[in-house]
Amino acid sequence: MASADIRRCVAVALLLGLIVALGVPGCSPGGPRGQDTPVAGGELEGKIKVSGAWALYPMMVTWAEEFQKLHPKVRIDVSAGGAGKGVADALAAVVDIGMVSREIRPEEVEQGAFSVAVVKDAVFPTINASNPVRDGLAARGVQRQTFVELFINGSPLTWGEIAGTESTDIVKVYTRSDACGAAETWAKYLGGAQEDLKEIAVYGDPGLAEAIRADPLGIGYNNLNYAYDASTGLPVTGLQVVPIDVNENGQVDPDEDLSTKSRAIEAIISGVYPSPPARDLYLMTKDRFQSPTAEFVRWILTDGQQYVEEVGYIRLADSQIKEGLEKLVG
Q: How far is CA 208 from CA 13, 26, 48, 242, in A?
């Protein structure tokens, strides 16, 4: 995702903040969730409304486009706004599918939340590419407790203290203002909840990325596909992904290197990158998926998986896909 793409995403975020839904292929305001109307011959027809996590948005757009090619009488409208919005919209039956980038909570299940995992990604710490100690951070990484001090305890650390240099520049910490899976997942890794995350709050994944890009002393976190450029596989222009010194040996080992998207994905698949902040991404609804949504979700777990790596996500294990399919028909 190039710099122009991030600015465009920020504009989208502002529009979403004003309750303007971004549709695929068109736009539609809020309202009752879609209903199917099968036509003669059994051709699938109807409307599917989707809202929720930024983390799933790029993947869902591709799935929607490809499914509509197969079923041109089905319209799928997709809007992003955070996992919290996806859950609330789905439970209120405002949408057919809520995109959720965290585990479904017990209280949400009690309210009728029905979910299946569809893909995997992760949240990564990000800094400005012009950070004064970026080379030192790339060589030694940052240990979990340092992130705890910054994001949970609000400690006024300098970049020199973190990177082992003489820099006296104070770290500026950024987090998310919207109820979202990325913040909850990052906070869970640090032993807290989203409301425990300190400092400057920014709306949306692209908004947070743009804030870090604009501040050489800033640090934040972004989902996989907002941290790395889809075409180059390198961090988005203006960002650098901070490697986590998982084994705390004071250096970035080869399997901890996050300098490219492919290495980040390898770290997730191998289990070296912690989980959280690696996590499964979910689709949820109220009670059960109804037609044509059920057919769409079933396609996502089968033929739709061919697009996962192309868009830059990580496939679930075959056992998880089988479990999801069984849950759909159970």
A: 11, 26, 29, 15
Question: Looking at the structure, do residues 132 and 68 belong to the same domain, yes or no?
Answer: no
> Is residue 246 located within the same domain as residue 184?
yes
Which of 243, 262, 261 has the alpha carbon at shortest distance from 253?
Answer: 243
pTM: 0.84
Q: Rounded to whole angstroms, how far apart are CA atoms 107 and 319?
A: 26
pLDDT band at 235 (very low <50, low <70, confident <90, very high): very high
What range does the domain containing 191 cover?
A: 123-270
Angle at 97 between CA 93 and CA 101, to 5 degrees: 120
Q: Which of 171, 273, 276 is nearest to 219 (CA)?
A: 171
Cα(126)–Cα(39) distance, rounded to whole angstroms? Answer: 49
Residue type, 276: P
Task: Please indicate, yes or no, if residue 159 is contained in any of the structural domains.
Answer: yes
Per-residue confidence (pLDDT) for residue 8, from 0 to 100: 44
Q: What is the mean pLDDT of residues 230-245?
A: 97
Domains: count for the chain: 2
Phi then psi for residue 318, to 5 deg, are -55, -35
Helices 318-329 and 293-301: angle between axes, nearest 10 degrees? 160
CA distance 133 to 159: 7
Which domain CATH number covers 158?
3.40.190.10
Sign, CA dihedral 268-271-276-282, equals: positive
In a domain, 89, yes or no: yes
